[in-house]
């Protein structure tokens, strides 16, 4: 590669090409991240200009904050069920939609629609469905399951969160699985069929192992999105009834911006970051070992 | 054999059709009820409207300050996406063509930073930019999107710049182009398909984002569409008719774009996931 002559020219080029990006990246992500770690050791209340260092007091409060751990466990349960269902539904849809069916591109486009709309709007739409349409159907047809709003019952409100989450992300992950399935070589599948392999054998011995990279991406994306769910939680259940569906992200938000407990709030956010980072990195690390070549 | 396959395909088709109807059902409910009066909505949400009245729409249009929210959303999304694409392409190109230790470490830092969720940064972010009085403006928000959007964009561009032969650029340099001209006349046009992917991923994210704008944009006339929908819903909780129309108005622009750009959006998501 031809390089520019002179130190000044090279520096100018570097600044022009990387300066703005790196400035924004450092100033918006890295500095707040590091400053956030510092904040966890202070007792800032959000208003006063001064705050003092309090050592590990905030972290002690985090471990004592049972509400935080409750909502963390709830989030864990929510993430586990949602991620499993999202990926099962998405994979099945993708599998059927790559089998050469008529109109499959229209179907793909249709299942993707919920991803065009933000969590806030989707939550409001489903709020109407759960507390009006379902209740109406339940009363008309005498189905006790639907005759009261799901959002008024702690257990059912939790499941309604899961239903909407699966509905929202299945289409997105389906698109990624479709891309993966189209890359599975047709010739080896054909060879297996000629050798008398059943559909189930082909799926277990060939398609699933070859799809591991797609599974890694989809599980990673759905883990990250579900752990950090906020919009949908806010507009669908508002954490209710009686804070029974308050996910951890909403808890952190309330701790910091409503209770004005910034130090503890940030400490909780940081603990959450460590836990989520560990889980997602472990997932990618361990599933990489399952990868095979055709 | 022929027959059995045909029957199987038909069953699959019907099953899919049922799934799709279930998928679209919430939106259909929304559309149907947005034309009805409050009483009709609560007493029989499934029935079709008696007459097509746009009263709910005009009502919601005014109360949501739709024009202002829509244009805020458009300005923020378009400027952020253009900015992210240009800046990230330049940076990725520079990193690939100047593989020094420093550049490699910086690139690695950007990739690693993608694991940081927004919630881990939001509190210090608001504190820092609040204390220097840099909140409550579109431009502050755009600047933040440029920061949050750059890691993924640089990462995706980085992979594609590597596939452009360096000879192409060398030829341009020998012919008398400067490095900057080479980038804008040769490299950036070659990267166009990648740019489409990055633009689509970022539009989907920024247009629908709620948490960041809700922290940055405080005054009502700076609100984006998701924000104004949220406040509209908070203020008129029982007025179902206008609420339904308001939600429809928020969804409609995206659906119209999707109708025309559907192929590119699906492809963009596919491309963006193959890392």
Question: What does this molecule look like?
Answer:
The complex is a heterodimer of chains A (294) and B (275). Chain A is mostly helical. Chain A has a single domain (58-288), classed as MetI-like (MetI-like fold). Helix content of chain A is 73%, strand content 0%. In chain A, helix 2 packs across helix 12 (262-288), helix 3 packs antiparallel against helix 9 and helix 11 (248-258) packs antiparallel against helix 12. With 275 residues, chain B is mainly α. Chain B has helices at residues 2-33, 38-43, 55-63, 66-97, 101-113, 122-131, 138-161, 166-174, 179-190, 192-208, 211-216, 225-235, 240-273. The chains are: A mainly alpha (294), B mainly alpha (275). Chains A and B meet through helix 1, helix 4, helix 5, helix 6 and helix 9 of A and helix 1, helix 4, helix 5, helix 6 and helix 7 of B.
Keywords:
heterodimer, A: 294 residues, mainly alpha, MetI-like fold, 12 helices, 73% helix, 0% strand, globular, B: 275 residues, 2 domains, 13 helices
Question: Would you summarize the structure shown here?
Answer:
The complex is a heterodimer of chains A (294) and B (275). Chain A has 294 residues and is an all-alpha fold.
Query: What is the N-to-C order of secondary-structure elements of chain A (H for helix, E for strand)?
Result: HHHHHHHHHHHH
**Share in helix of chain A:** over 70%
Number of strands of chain A: 0
Shape of chain B: globular
Helix count, DSSP H or I runs of 4 or more residues of chain B: 13
The low-confidence parts of chain A are none
Q: Report mean pLDDT of chain B, rounded to a whole number.
A: 83
Rounded to the nearest angstrom, the distance between the terminal CA atoms of chain A is: 37 Å
Calculate the terminal CA-CA distance of chain B, rounded to whole Å.
Answer: 41 Å
Number of helices of chain A: 12
CATH superfamily of chain A: MetI-like
Query: CATH class of chain A, anyone?
Result: Mainly Alpha
Chain pair forming the biggest interface: A-B, 90 and 90 residues
Helix share, percent of chain B? over 70%
